[in-house]
Structure formats: C-alpha cells, structure tokens
Amino acid sequence: MKRTTFTRLVYGFCLMCTFVGAAAAQTVTGSLVGHVEDVKGGVIPGARVLLTDVDRGTRREAVTNDEGNFSINSVDPGVYRVEIEQTNFKKSIRERVEVAINTTVRADVQLEPGGVEETVEISGEAVQLKTERADVSQQITREQVEELPLSPDRNYQSILDISPGVTEAQTVGSSFGNPNGSLTNRINGQNERYNNFQLDGTINNQTNVISQSNIVPSPEAIQVVDVSTNAYDAEQGRAAGGVVNVQIKSGTNDFHGSAYIFNTNSALSARNTLSTLDKPQTKLTQFGFAFGGPIIRDKTFFFGDYQGGRDRRGQSTLLSVPTEAFRNGDFRGAGAIFDPGPTGTIAAASRQPFANNMIPTARISPVARGILARLPLPNLPGATNNYEAAGTFIQDRDQFDVKINHIFGDNTNAFVRYSFFKANTSDVPAFDELGGPSTGGVATAAVGPSRNQSGTINLTHTLSPSLVTEFRLGFVRVLISATSPTEEDLATQLGIPGINNGDFFTGGLPFIRISEYTNLGIATTVPFKIAETSFNIVNNWTKTKGNHTIRFGGDIRRLILNKFQAGGSNPRGDFTFSSGLTSRTTGTSANAFAAFLLGLPQTVSRTTVTQLGGYRLHQYFFFAQDRWQVNPKLTLNYGLRYEIYPYSLPANPGDQSRYDPATNQVLIAGFGPVDERLGVKTDFTRFAPRLGVAYRLDDKTVIRTGYGISYIPLSINTLATQNFGGQTDVTFTGSNAQSPPRAAGNVITISTGIPSVTGIDTSSGIVTPPGNVTLGVVNPNQKRGYVQSYNFTVERDIYGFVSSVGYVGSRGTRLPGTLNINAAPPGSLTNERPLARLYGRTADAFVSDFMLSNSYHSMQARVDRRFRRYGRITAAYTLSKSLDYTDAFSLDDDLNIDNNRGPSSFDRKHNLVVSHVARLPFGRGEKLFDSNGLRWKGLLGGFTLSGVFTARSGTTVDISNVNLITDPATGRSNRPLGALARPNVTGTPRILGGLGPGQLFFDTSVFRDPLPGQTGNAGRNSLRGPSFFNYNATLSRIFSLTEQFKLQFQATAFNVTNTPHFRNPSGNFTSSTFGQSRTTFGERSIRFGLKLTF
User: Fold this and answer.
1) What is 4-127's CATH superfamily?
2) For residue range 400-423, what is the model confidence (pLDDT) as tens digits?
3) Cα within 13 Å of Cα(24), Cβ side
C-alpha cells in the first residue's frame, strides 16, 4: 500500500462516518441506565428522564421503553442530577450521581403514586456495584491521585498497582530516552509493551518505546484514571495488557484553582543501610498551578495547569586513572615491559625490555601526552579505584495543559486540549572534555533537550435521543536527544586525524579503552536524536433500540518515526589498548598503559553511518458491540473487533531490509524489484470477539464473567528494524597482532587514526551480505499473535464495603520473539554453525516472528469503601502465577525453545496493596476532641492521613553463565555459540535467607559447571528473591484562610519504617558474589509540600 493511500483512507473513513458510522478506540464518556417501576413492581413506560450536569448546566433527556428501561449514552463525565417523572406519579430526584469515563452507572427508581408537582428526593450517594459490564477495571479518582503518596516526582503511574493484577511501577529507559519519567507496569502477566495509554481518549503511547507514555500529567490536572485490565469491551483495543485512560480536568461554572510547591531533600533522607559513604546531596523541587472556570457561563469553560520540576542530584563514583609516574613512562615497581619498536613492528620473541623499565620521553605518543594533560591525577591512594569523580545530575522540566470545553446546545458539545512538556537534562562525563562515564557511574554521559506534545479535539453530537456520535482527532509529537558536551573537534586538536568530520555523529573524542583503567571518550549510543509523530482519527456511534445499546466505530492511526543514531561500533572510533604489544611471549609481564603511551592499540574499530532509519506505519481498527438488557437482572455485552496491522514502510528506500536464509540474500526495501514492505504480507484475518455477562442476584450481589481476544500491538522498531551492517552503517576493524612481524605501513597507531569505509552497494535491492555481520530475518507470512483473557467475579456490597473476588486469567498465543537460527550447541566450533555449513556464515541471524506463548492465572480480591466525610480505603490482593519464555523478545536458549519456559521475571505469588485517604475526626465539629472546654480544639482539626501499604513475595532469580572449560585436544567448550549458557544443578537449592555482603541467600553448592559439549540443566527463573514490605504515608493539614481560600500543608514519608529493601541476589554463576544480595534501595525519604486552593 503506497503512502498516498493513507490520505485516501482518511477521506473514505470520514465519508463512511458521515453516511454509515464507524468508530473505535477508547471512550471519553460514560452511560446512565436504569429501570423505572411503581411501588408494586410494575414497569412504567414513557417516563421522562432528565439528566442535568450540576457544574455546567447541560441537559440530556430520555424516555423509558415498554419494559421500563432507559439508557442515556455518551454522557460527559461529571456530577449529575437525575429527575424522573410520569403522569399520576410523584417526581423522583436523585442528586449527585457521578458518571465517569468508560463506566455505566445504574439509577433504578420506584415512583410513588401522586402528582408530578410532588417530589421525592433520594439523598445520599448510593453504593455502585458494576451491574452492566463484565470487564475487570477500576477508577482511580481525583482525590486518590492528589492525596495518596505518589512517587517522589509525583507520577500518577506509581499508584496504578492499587488495582489487582497490576505490578509495581518500574522506570523505563534512561533520563535522556525517558525525560518525563514515564513508569510502566506489567498487567495480568503481560509484557509492558502490550499496554495502551490514552489521554482524553486519544493516543498517548510513544512509538519508538511503546511502553512509555508521551505525556505524564501533573496530579492537579487529572480528573480520573481509568484502568481496564481484563476482558474489556470491543471498543477497547490496540492492547493485550491493560488500557489506561487519563482524563484531564475541565472547567465548570465556578472558578477553582490551586498553586503549590513540593520539595524532597536528601538532608531528611535516611542513609543507605549497607553504605559507609556520605549521602549524596539531592534536591527535587516541583511547583505549579491549576486554574479553571467559565469563559461564557453555561457555554464555554477553560482549564489550564503548569508544573515545573528542578532536579539536582549530587553523585560520585570511583574510577581508575594512571599514576603520575606511569604518565611519565616510569614503570619501575611494576612488571617488566618490552619494546615493540618505534613502529610496533618488532616480533614478540625479539622484543627487549625497556631500560630501567622506563619509556623514554621521546617515545611517548604526542596524542597520549595531550590526553594525559587533560586527564586528572588520582585523588585517592592506590593504582586502581584511585579517583573519586563528583558532579551533579541536572534536569529541568516544564509542562502545561490547556483545555477548552464548549457547549453548542443540549445536543452538541466539544473540547480541545493541548499538552506540552520539555526537559533539559545534563549528566556530564567524569573527565569533562575527555568523556568517560558520568559522575554517577552511568555509561551514557551527555546533555540533551527534549520536547513532547499532545493534542485532542473531541466533538459529541446527539442526533436524536437514541442516536449519538463522537468524533476525535489526536496527535502525539516526541523529540528526544542526547549529545556530548565535549568539543566537536577535540580529536583533531589532539592529533587524531580523520575522526571529527563535522557531521552529527563524529564530534568529540574516540572511545579509548585501556585495560585496568576507566574508559575515556563518548559512549557508542551518543549522540542520538529521535523524532516521532502519531495521529489517530476516531468516530464512534451509539444507537439505542429497545433494550439494546449498539456501539460501532473505527480508529485509523498513522505513526512516523525518524531515528538518528549510529549502529554498530562507535562512529568516532574505538581504540583498545591491552598488554599484548608490550609483552615478549604469552604469559610474560606487560602493561596496557605502556601500550597507550606508545600509541599502539591492540584493536581498533569504527562505524561509518551511511543511511539513517525512518519508518512509517498505519493501523486500522473497527468494532461493533451490543449491550443487551435482557431483563432488569441480566445484561449481556457482546461484540467484535477487526484490526489491521500492515508491515511498516521505510521513510526512504533502503531504510529496512530482511535476510532470506533460503537464498543467503538480503532484500533491501524500495530498491530494484523489492517492494517497500519487503514482501511481508498483511494479515487481514484478525477478528477479536468479546463477550461479557453480568447478573444481579439481588441489589447487593452481582456475578460477572467475561472473555475476549486482543491482538499484540508492536512499536515500529520491534520487528521492522532488520538492517544489517554495511547497509545503513559499515564498520572498519583492525588489529595489531601480538606477534607481527608487520610492515611499518600496516601498523595502526592512534596518531594515524581510523579510516572511513564505504558501505555495500544496495541499489540492486538484492545483495549477498558478508558472513561476519549479524542479520535479521522476518517471516513474510507472519500471523499476528493474540491474548485470550477471561474472568469470573462475584461482587457484593457488605455494609457499604464493595467487595469482589474472582478468577482472572489470560493466555498468549504466537507472541513476538526473536530466535537465533545460527546458534550452535556447546562443543561446536564456529564453522559448525548451521549457516556456516551452508554459506560460511559465522555471525548470528535472528528470526523475528510471532512464535512464543505465555499463561497467567490469578485469584484477585478487592475491597473498597467510601466514607462521605472521612475518605476512602481500598485493598487489593492478587495470588498469581505467570509463565513465559522471555522478559522481552530474545531467548536465552535458541537451541531448545522449551528450555526458556519458566516463571516470569516480574512474577510475585502474593501481592497485597492497601491504600487509604482518612480525614481524621478531630477538632471542632468532629466526633473527637470537640469539647467546649478544650481550648485548642481548633488546632486539632483539618488533618488527613493518606497512605499505601505494600506486601509482596519475591520476584524470580535467574541462574546463568558458566566458567569456560575447553577440551585442549579438540578446542570444544561448554559454552554454546549464540546462546546463553546455564550451569548444572545437582539438587534442590535451599533458601538460606542471608541478606547483605558475604551472606548467601540461597545454597550455591548445588550448582556445577557443565563439561565441554554439555548443556546445563538449570531452569530459567528457578529461584525467588527477598520479599518486600513498605508503607508510604502523607500527613496533611488544611488551614482555612477565608471561606474560599484554604492552605494545605503536606508531609510525605516514603518507607516510613525505613525497612531495608534488599535487591535480588546475584544469579551469575561465575561471579564472586553469586547467591548474595548485597545492595538495598528505597531508604526513607521525606517530601514537604504547600498547596493553596480556592
């Protein structure tokens, strides 16, 4: 399908919406349903139902049908008054009925005989059981978002785990790749990449890293968070995990707002349990405001918010730098060094030791001398770990949202929202212009700006009381980058020619590796710039006919990704210095730093970027569903989704390719006879049925069961980036052998630099690749994988506590994965790889296809109680087991796929989360301490205690890696080629429970190295780590300044009890710390906040 087809499809889609109606995606509205009868239980047809928004004045009407049922659909979220009247009956008025996004609220009424001028008011907020739907979902309210102790940067995603089946939030990527601090959760056993994030009903996932949210709104901007985790309606799609839809607040007829500042400071933080170092000085400040109200009363409303964040983290790391004596060529006291000659051409056996073990000054490379002049001297004793680098991580964030709502009349309303985020991040290298790791020890030391944008336009129009349509347009724009803070022409200044070419990729110093010392230069991943743009168009229709509410619609998406990042080795070059060139024979003493002084690297490599990757992707979703109110007790929901995921298009010819192992050729997209989609066929058979049943046993008990199929969403670069070395980049490698003899002109020195090379000519579209480059294989007849989700739940109102318990499960089929088809078992030689026998191919070749599976079984229980004046308490417990083949896509054992199956890395058998918002009943007008004789009762009021308590069993520990054992007679070893090695286990490992350095958490004595040719029998993720217990709490106090203005003071403590949280023990069999849990995290920290509200 050509790119111009997208435009035609959009036009056709809009035309179809006009005449027929099509739609899909996530809803931004709710529904109100009910049953009207008289006091004797007889149905009342023809009753008038009036729904009035108490904050904005909008009205919707409906009439009960012959069976006394009514349904009002596409209701904007808000608080409503429901009036029901019929001749010869008293009017019924129910106040403060709250309708939220993606919910169906029931309002049944019994009308009493009388005149319509008489009214019966139903007071109090009724307990709402979920009686009309069978999905597993939960609403996180505005109050919970603003009152519960969120993460230190106040990210709402940190409390998604108050929903059953949702794991604790995890960070995604680096500070440069994820500057807005988006978090991710595994939901009901599924990969975090399968989650769908929505903002006001339109796309909020990023394209390059699909598990990241584009915009993370401030808590003050959020009206509600809707979390759907299992068997959702046919309208919900592009997800096989969870659907998280965030609604931004809207203005009302009254002005409301707030201004705030929060500060987290390390001065009040506890020390790391196992550390003897001083606490790093950190300071995180967040400030902002939110304001909303009417522009034209009852017509036009606005809401806006701004949040700024200033993050300053003191950090330090221990590094290794050469001593002053070594820098001067003085190696007395060290092992003997041998002279390879001025040009490095003297054979090892003929080398003579340097006189007095000193390198003459004249022999020191000018490049080495220039580098050392900029490299700091040790500031600690010793030959290694002798330099403490200190610095500050800096990140400045600014973001805002603007939302305008307009009511054209009772039948039409619309809103427009725009969200913006920008950040400037600086994590400078420890050696300043010479690069190296950051002062925090992170390999990627860089500076970089970023900018994220998002927008939504929504129009809802009621054509008749029984027909409503919604139209939405959404867009996402992401720009993230990281560059080196070093001088662009530094290599040229130092005398290394041909490195700094003046382009985006080649500024700064090459990567310089010297054995036993900290690396210099700029990380391979820097610089990068990623720009992505996504659009989606949605149109939904709702038709009510009798007891049926029918919804249908469609969602078309266009995703654009442009990625500027070098692959392969460092585009500035990579010089590796080892001891080989200053030794005489194998086993004799030598010194890698001496080789550096002489300017003689052991190996060099450099990637020359020949083409940058860009991708375009289209996705098409359609659905139809029916909610059938069979009778007042039984509701059926059934529907069908249809999803189309065409393979990606390259932005330019040659931006993607695939290797065909049957012919040993690579197909280059857009060149010669090769089409842009590489011959990968689109699967047009992806239908996804959904079914739900809800049955009310009585007014306090509901039984629900649901089933649904969801297809796997993928980011562009998951299965589309199948380029190979030589196509988009080409790498030069060279080596100075330890035993030349080499001609002087062939010896590579740091002063001669690294030559650039040209890529392979791909203009024919079909090329035979070199045998030593890694290749990607894509199945041209792939069938997209899917997840079946199902649940059976019983919910009951027990004295106001909405309690539910049920079975929730899922099973994934044909999930995405990558398999190395050129792997070979232990004991194999390189030329015994499968493709080496056929074509002489010695490098890996990875097939990307839908080939794996997973399963998830759980018992989920939830208790929720709202107290009108005193807050809310929610408890969520999950007992679960999750099995899969990989944490992401690549397998550990490519030779036997079944050996990869095991407990998921995130699997926790027990997971309990209790959250509460409790307004303490103290002081004036409250139940306690309200005595007239108590002088200070006014000071005791206004307190709220909020908290989240978590108790979890441990996650899994994977045992891997083996010590190399080689058969000297055959050269065969115990390590596979292209796959992960595992040890043998000779018994059942006992959990010893030791925590801390030197303490064994599990019995390591039962693990052994396999012999050459043997495959270890240790299973994947076979052990479990320490349990986790934590309590975060916020104590707040409200001071009434005037009737409208209130000041709230907050104090939040994370890990109130300062309980040590130990990380999982090391599962690396070859490590000296194998079986030890040596580090902790999450020490107590405290945040203070001040908020003015009106």
Assistant:
1) Carboxypeptidase-like, regulatory domain (2.60.40.1120)
2) 999 999 999 889 999 999 999 999
3) 25
